[in-house]
């Protein structure tokens, strides 16, 4: 497939959210086994949203032409959407303009100053993620903690791909299910904003074929609050358990790139483990030898 079908995405999302609501959740009578559909009927949802059944039906068929922000807000309230889901609905329903596909296909550039910053973050694993959660730059300690990105072909340096297709990464996360839901949610949000991204479509297709769990989460239109900070618990094959706080910093000059940095409290077992990893990895993964420093990487990452 060349790109995601925006009309289909909108319809599937609305149906998935309607199906999770029970009549009693919204103050409607429940006729029990006489109901033929899970969740609310279209006419019930339309009544709650204050629109005609025909109008709402057209929306579930992916026809969002000329839909107003007020109508979307009414439907979001009727479906009990949270802020993340409401924003996603708005992105799915907005019209697309021609010419955006070219922007999504351009290779991502990493400013030299960012590479210098990554190398200067001594004792702090950090990497830069771009479109589709591609890992486009990293420092040696990040490679020591999360795996050697430089050993992978550029098209495989992707957080979502690692989580679902790399057994070593699956073992690394102590709460793999939570991590899997989060990365699928982040990818789904990106898809709502950039359905024209052909590489996104290829990634979703590959993961859907190769991972049953990804296929299930993607079909459920899994969405969660975007966790820009928190604590990640890992089970590292060399140093054992790690508990690392993380911060995700969106770059102000790029809507698609974020710096993700991890740290441990001074004097903690996790801080000691990071120091050990840093000392073991420094000779083999010095900045001069790291593929992340190769400018040719930028042209290969799209």
Summed up:
The protein has 15 helices and 5 strands. The protein has a 5-stranded antiparallel β-sheet. Helix 2 packs across helix 4.
What does this structure look like?
47% of the residues lie in helices and 11% in strands. It is α+β, with helices and mostly antiparallel strands and 302 residues long. Strands 2-1-5-4-3 form a 5-stranded antiparallel β-sheet. It has 15 helices and 5 strands.
Task: Describe this protein with a few key phrases.
15 helices, 5 strands, disordered C terminus, five-stranded antiparallel sheet, elongated, 302 residues, 47% helix, alpha+beta
Please write out the topology.
Layout: H1 6-19, H2 42-49, H3 53-60, H4 69-78, H5 83-93, H6 100-105, H7 112-120, E1 126-129, E2 135-138, H8 140-146, H9 159-165, H10 167-172, H11 176-193, H12 198-210, H13 212-219, E3 229-236, E4 240-250, E5 258-263, H14 269-281, H15 296-300
Antiparallel strand pairs: 1-2, 1-5, 3-4, 4-5
Helix pairs in contact: 2-3, 2-4, 4-5, 8-14, 9-11, 12-13
Rg of Cα set: 22 Å
What class, by secondary structure content? alpha+beta
What is the tally of helical segments? 15
Termini Cα gap: 17 Å
Largest sheet: 5 strands, antiparallel
Strand content of the residues, in percent? 5-15%
The 3D shape can be described as: elongated
Q: Give the strand line-up of the largest sheet.
A: 2-1-5-4-3
- Mean pLDDT score, rounded? 85
Bin the helical content. 40-55%
What order do the SSEs take from the amino end to the carboxyl end, as H and E?
HHHHHHHEEHHHHHHEEEHH
């Amino acid at each position: 497939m060349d790109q995601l079908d925006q009309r289909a995405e909108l319809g599937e999302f609305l149906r998935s959210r309607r199906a999770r609501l029970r009549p009693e959740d919204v103050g409607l009578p429940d006729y029990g086994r006489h109901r033929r559909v899970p969740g609310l009927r279209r006419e019930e949802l339309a009544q709650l949203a204050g629109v005609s059944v025909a109008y709402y039906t057209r929306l579930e068929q992916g026809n969002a032409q000329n839909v107003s922000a007020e109508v979307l807000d009414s439907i979001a309230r009727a479906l009990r959407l949270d802020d993340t889901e409401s924003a996603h609905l708005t992105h799915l329903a907005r019209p697309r303009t021609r010419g955006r596909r070219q922007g999504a296909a351009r290779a991502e550039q990493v400013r030299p100053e960012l590479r210098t910053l990554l190398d200067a973050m001594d004792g702090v694993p950090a990497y830069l993620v771009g479109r589709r959660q591609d890992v486009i730059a990293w420092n040696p300690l990040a490679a020591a903690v999360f795996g050697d990105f430089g050993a992978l072909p550029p098209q495989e340096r992707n957080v979502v791909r690692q989580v679902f297709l790399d057994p070593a990464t699956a073992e690394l996360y102590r709460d793999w299910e939570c991590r899997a839901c989060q990365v699928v949610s982040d990818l789904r949000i990106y898809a709502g904003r950039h359905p024209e991204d052909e590489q996104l479509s290829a990634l979703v297709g590959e993961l859907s074929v190769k991972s049953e769990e990804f296929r299930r989460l993607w079909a459920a239109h899994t969405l969660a609050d975007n966790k820009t900070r928190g604590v990640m618990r890992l089970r590292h094959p060399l140093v054992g358990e790690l508990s690392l706080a993380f911060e995700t910093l969106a770059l102000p000059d790029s809507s698609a790139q974020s710096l993700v940095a991890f740290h441990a409290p001074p004097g903690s077992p996790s801080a000691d483990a990071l120091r050990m990893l840093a000392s073991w990895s420094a000779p083999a993964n010095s900045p001069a030898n790291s593929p992340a420093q190769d400018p040719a990487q930028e042209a290969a990452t799209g």
